[in-house]
Structures are given as C-alpha cells and as structure tokens.
C-alpha cells in the first residue's frame, strides 16, 4: 500500500466509516454491509485549484449582485416545473428511482427537448452500449445531431470529454457505474460514488454545465451511498410509481432552486413518457360512483392540488389479530385513525381486517387526507356509499376533532373545477375562507358531525 493511502471499512448502506470491520452498522443497523475500501488521503484533484464560486474573500451579502438566473427549459413542462422552472446553470441534479421505472427514458426525452432547441447535450451511459441507446432513442423518436451519446464509465475520460466537447447539459447514467482509477474499490461502492459525485459537482460548478446524475435506489428506497450524495447535489428528484401501473411521479425532495415536494406526473406509454397535465381527472377516471368504501379527497403536492380516490375495505376477520394492509398511505396514521374511530364513533373495528388503497398507485403522506381515510373506512364498515359529488378534507386529532389544514382555498377550487358539488372542510378553515360560488362548503368540528353529514 502506498504511503498516502489508508484503508477504511465503509457501510455500503449509509456510508458510516470505521477503521475495523464490524458485523452490524451502528448507524443504520444493517448487517454485513461493511466493505474494506482504500482511500487516498488527498482524494480530490480539484481541491487546490480554487473555490466553487470564484470569490476568495467574504463579502457583505447585500453587495452581491444577482443577475436574473437564466433557466434552460427542456420543454417537458412537468419536468421543468419540478426543477423549479427549468435548469439552472452549474446545478447538479440527482434523479433516483427503482430500476426500470423510466429514469433513462426521461433523461433521453429531456435531452432531446434541449437538443432540438440547439443546445448541445452529452449523454454518458455506463449501462448501455451506444447501439442500445440508439434503439431506445428510435423508439422515443429522440434523434438529433446536437445530442452526443457515449458509453463510458471512466470518470477521467468523461471529464476530458466534457472539456473537449463543452456540452450545454450533461447526463451521467448512472452514478453507480462510474469508475475512478484513483480508488481500487468497485464501481457502485460508497467511496466510488462519493468521489465521482464530488468530481462531477466541482466540474459542474466550475464550468457551469448543468449535470444530471441518475442514481439507483436500494431495496429500502434509499439511493445507494445515499446521505453522502444527497448533500453534495443541489436538487434531488425521485422518480416513483408502481412498475405495474402506468403512472410515474417525479418528486422533488430537495431543491436549492425551487420548491420541494413539487411533483410531476407522467404516464409510461409505448413511445416513452407522456406528461399528465390534469392528474386529478386521470386519478379519478375509474372511480366507482355510489359504491361503499370509496371517497375523494384533495391533497396538495408542492403548489398543486390533486384529487385522489381513497378506497377502504373493512371486513370481518378470521384471524386472532386483524390485518391492516395499507397501500399508498402511512400505516401508522391509518392505525391511529382507526383507533380514534373505535373510541369516538363506537365502531367495533378490532374484529375487522382493514385494507386501504389510493387509486392509481399514488402515495400521499399529508395529514389533510385523514378525513378521507376515516370516511372510506366508515363507508365500507357501514356498507353505505357517500353521495357522488362529495369530497372531504381535514386533519383529525386523537380526540376526534377535525383540525385546520393548509391551502384550503386551492383545494376547494380544484374540487369545484373537477365538478364536485359538496365539500367538507375543517370548521376553523371555513371561517377564514372566501366564499366560492357553485360549491357547498360545510365546516366540520369533529368526526361524529362528519359522519352525520355523510351517512
Ligand atoms: P428505463 O428508462 O430503462 O428505466 P431506468 O433507466 O429507470 O432503469 O425504463 C425502462 C422501462 O420502461 C421498461 O420496463 C420499458 C419501459 N418503456 C416503455 O414502456 N416505453 C418506452 O418507450 C420505453 C423507452 C421504455
Ligand atoms: Mg436506465
């Protein structure tokens, strides 16, 4: 081993480092995740060449002049919105998602959008040969002379390629395949991923080339080498969705240049990803009307209200412990609400299995959909349907009170826009709301009152 090298054991799941091997990671509690990796003491070649912004001295913050950021648009509106209104120069964007969810497809389509506007783009694939990329590109009809593609995993070669061709936008698909010759660990290991991200980050900041990094996620949903990467990049987008469903949701979980929790909705078709500009209509399109166990509620993702259908099924259990199978909602939240229903409404749900689902394979974690969960379970338990034009929103507390939620106005506007005629909102929100003609808005104080109105 060379003098300036040291070996460390690194947890491949969370990046925890230790000088000795361990069976269980004390940080993330995963077993058998430590791998011995050699690290150079001076890992970063760019370190001594200058700082990211070019300023060396601290300056008063009010003396810094901001020129209005020019943002590059990919032409895919859903994508541009999630980015915060287009791509910022020098930004590093991480796109994570399960294998096969459509990350490479999205990247090719976004690059095509830029290339047809005359922006030279470079797509580096470490996973597919250029022939494979071409086949995909034909399927997506994304061929353009301004789109350069290369199949390469060596980081140094990629960096000199960027120097030579000076693309307007760069895509690395995927960061887990990148190989840095300075390290002897395999591509995909924590040190390789960290080093490659670091070099690409510095390159993006120095050259101003917006760079996308595609990252795979591990089985429990984290990007491999996760925490170390997430803080180095400017924006983290997750591409999620059920592979068996056609809908894909692109979610911003971190964005230095825009709102987080903004989402973009896409539909996977045989010719690539299609934008879904009115997700409410799509998510509600197959809703069975006047059927027990189905209710519509409004969730706000970022700045956009989306109506979703929550389905509940409560049936007598044959097991000692009743089952709670929840898809698309928070498991603990549902358990909590079911306990509140037992206590405050007197529903004997202990003897019932409860199954819940959000139609369309969407996931909602907002407390504002609590009332929707309660209404869906109650409707199935009582076997009584809820009147077709009704939507419920509101957070529910442990004593059965309905609590105020945010963005009531935009939710109710969307509810009205989608043709619903009656909406139950928290009473405290109703007081502060301006009247919206054409829809009956009812304020509710607690869940018993809501049950009286609904059933
Ligand atoms: P891909 O972009 O390769 O996923 P990732 O890069 O995230 O691993 O997407 C692959 C899936 O998308 C694959 O199952 C096939 C499907 N697909 C379509 O349905 N239509 C298309 O036009 C393309 C290119 C892929
Ligand atoms: Mg791919």
- Tally of separate helices: 12
Distance between the termini: 75 Å
Strand content: 25-35%
For the sheet with most strands, the description reads: 9 strands, mixed
CATH architecture of the largest domain: 3-Layer(aba) Sandwich
Bound molecules: thymidine-5'-diphosphate, magnesium ion
Key words describing this protein structure:
alpha/beta; Rossmann fold; Ribosomal Protein S5, domain 2; 3 domains; four-stranded mixed beta sheet; binds thymidine-5'-diphosphate; binds magnesium ion
Secondary structure topology:
Elements: E1 5-11, E2 17-18, E3 34-40, E4 71-72, H1 77-82, E5 87-88, E6 92-97, H2 103-115, E7 121-125, H3 130-140, E8 147-151, H4 155-165, E9 169-173, H5 190-207, E10 211-216, H6 226-230, E11 235-240, E12 247-255, E13 263-269, E14 272-275, H7 279-284, E15 294-301, E16 304-316, E17 324-327, H8 331-345, E18 352-358, H9 370-382, E19 390-392, E20 395-396, E21 402-403, H10 408-417, E22 422-426, H11 427-432, E23 440-444, H12 447-454
Parallel strand pairs: 6-10, 6-11, 7-8, 7-9, 9-10, 17-18, 19-22, 22-23
Antiparallel strand pairs: 1-2, 1-3, 4-5, 11-12, 12-13, 13-14, 15-16, 16-18, 20-21
The protein binds thymidine-5'-diphosphate (TYD) and magnesium ion.
Your description of this structure?
The longest helix has 18 residues, at 190-207. The chain has 455 residues and is an alpha/beta fold. Helix 5 links the parallel strand 9 and strand 10 (211-216). Helices cover 27% and strands 27% of the residues. It folds into three domains: 5-40; 71-277, Rossmann fold, CATH 3.40.50.300; 283-454, Ribosomal Protein S5, domain 2, CATH 3.30.230. The protein has helices at 77-82, 103-115, 130-140, 155-165, 190-207, 226-230, 279-284, 331-345, 370-382, 408-417, 427-432, 447-454; strands spanning 5-11, 17-18, 34-40, 71-72, 87-88, 92-97, 121-125, 147-151, 169-173, 211-216, 235-240, 247-255, 263-269, 272-275, 294-301, 304-316, 324-327, 352-358, 390-392, 395-396, 402-403, 422-426, 440-444. The strands form six sheets. It has a nine-stranded mixed beta sheet with strand order 8-7-9-10-6-11-12-13-14. It has a four-stranded mixed beta sheet with strand order 15-16-18-17. It starts with a strand and ends with a helix. The protein contains twelve helices and 23 strands. The site of thymidine-5'-diphosphate has 15 residues, from helix 2 and helix 3.
């Amino acid at each position: 081993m060379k003098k300036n090298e040291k070996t460390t054991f690194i947890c491949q799941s969370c990046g925890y480092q230790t000088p000795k091997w361990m069976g269980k990671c004390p940080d993330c509690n995963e077993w058998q995740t430590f791998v011995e990796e050699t690290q150079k003491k001076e890992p970063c070649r760019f370190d001594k060449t200058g700082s990211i912004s070019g300023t060396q001295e601290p300056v008063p913050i009010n003396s810094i002049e901001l020129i209005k950021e020019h943002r590059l648009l990919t032409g895919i509106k859903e994508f541009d919105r999630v980015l915060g209104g287009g791509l910022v120069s020098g930004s590093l964007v991480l796109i994570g998602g399960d294998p096969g969810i459509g990350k490479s497809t999205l990247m090719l389509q976004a690059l095509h959008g830029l290339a047809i506007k005359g922006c030279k783009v470079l797509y580096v694939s470490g996973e597919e040969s250029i022939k494979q990329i071409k086949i995909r590109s034909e399927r997506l009809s994304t061929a353009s002379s301004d789109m350069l593609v290369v199949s390469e995993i060596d980081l140094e070669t990629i960096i000199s390629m960027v120097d030579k061709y000076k693309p307007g936008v760069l895509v690395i698909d995927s960061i887990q395949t990148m190989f840095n010759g300075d390290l002897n660990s395999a591509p995909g290991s924590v040190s390789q991923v960290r080093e490659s991200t670091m070099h690409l980050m510095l390159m993006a900041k120095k050259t101003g080339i917006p760079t996308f990094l595609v990252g795979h996620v591990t089985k429990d949903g984290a990007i491999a080498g996760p925490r170390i990467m997430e803080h180095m990049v400017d924006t983290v987008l997750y591409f999620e969705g059920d592979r068996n469903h056609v809908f894909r949701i692109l979610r911003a979980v971190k964005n230095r240049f825009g709102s987080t929790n903004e989402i973009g909705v896409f539909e996977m078709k045989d010719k690539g990803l299609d934008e879904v500009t009115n997700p409410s209509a799509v998510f509600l399109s197959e809703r069975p009307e006047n059927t027990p166990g189905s209710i519509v509620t409004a969730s706000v993702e970022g700045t956009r209200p989306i109506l979703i259908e929550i389905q509940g099924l409560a049936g007598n259990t044959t097991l000692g412990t009743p089952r709670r199978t929840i898809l698309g909602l928070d498991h603990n939240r549902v358990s909590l609400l079911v306990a509140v229903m037992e206590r405050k409404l007197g529903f004997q749900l202990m003897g019932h299995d409860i199954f819940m689902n959000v139609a369309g394979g969407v996931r909602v974690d907002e407390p504002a959909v609590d009332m929707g969960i309660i209404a869906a379970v109650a409707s199935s338990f009582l076997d009584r349907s809820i009147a077709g034009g009704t939507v419920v929103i509101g957070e529910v507390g442990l004593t059965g009170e309905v609590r105020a939620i945010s963005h009531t106005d935009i939710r109710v506007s969307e509810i009205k826009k989608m043709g619903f005629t009656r909406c139950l909102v928290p009473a405290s929100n109703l007081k502060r709301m301006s009247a919206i003609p054409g829809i009956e808005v009812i304020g509710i104080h607690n869940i018993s009152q809501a049950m009286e109105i609904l059933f």
